[in-house]
Amino acid sequence: MKEMPPMPAVPLTLEGAAVLHQMFRLRHAEWRKETGKDQLLTAAATTLAEMEEAGSGVFSMLGHKSDLMLVHHRRSFIDLNAVELRLASLELFDYLEPTTSYVSVVELGLYESSFRLYNQLAGRGLEPFTPEWDREIEEALETQRKAMAPRLWPAIPNHRYICFYPMNRTRGERKNWYMLSIAERRRQMHEHGLIGRRYAGQVQQIISGSIGFDDWEWGVDLYAEDPLVFKKLIYEMRFDEASAVYAEFGPFYTGLRVSASVLGDLFAGHPPAG
User: Fold this and answer.
1) Annotated catalytic residue within 102, 111, 161, 165
2) Disulfide engineering: 48 pairs with which of 23, 115, 259, 260, CB 3.0-4.6 Å?
């Protein structure tokens, strides 16, 4: 009996919207001295309102890490660069000091379907990465892209709160996620996903891939009406094997969604209306 070819280690992924997170700290001392605040705020609010229509969100942040976070979903990195350049041209942004940023693309990991497809193709005697194999893979991916288009090109959820954090999978000397077999990673990710499904309706999650784009491997955006759900969901996931053994978490950013139309109130020190 002919031995089946080895299964590829890398799961298939689908990529969609280009994503940029921008965090800023207001230079309060300099801003207090500005005599033309209304004009600067009006110009910035007009631009941000247009960007909201195109797929951006404005957030008033909690804690010292930033005062303002802007999240942009666009069709391409070229579009994200245009967003950055346009914002940098606004006079208001002379008073906003960038504290950090994050570049990524919306990503759907396909562990389950990759495992099934790889086995099907291997069972038919196809060798990985041959033209025939690649053609079958691309046809399957195109079918998935069409079926999952709403998840690949999501609007920023219009929920009250956001929690954003980057994360890695462990690549240590003793525990290395990337040295596990695809079957084992599939098992763990399946169990990991079951926890998230229990919070459906309470929190909306958008995962973006950043390997090769930024300093971490993934960015996670959580959106909800009640911020306590962030704590409950992430705490429960800490007990899951994929997280407890193989997850490394970056800094967390939590904030409140605001409309560009109330930018003046925000910069005047008035909290977003409930």
Assistant:
1) 165
2) 260
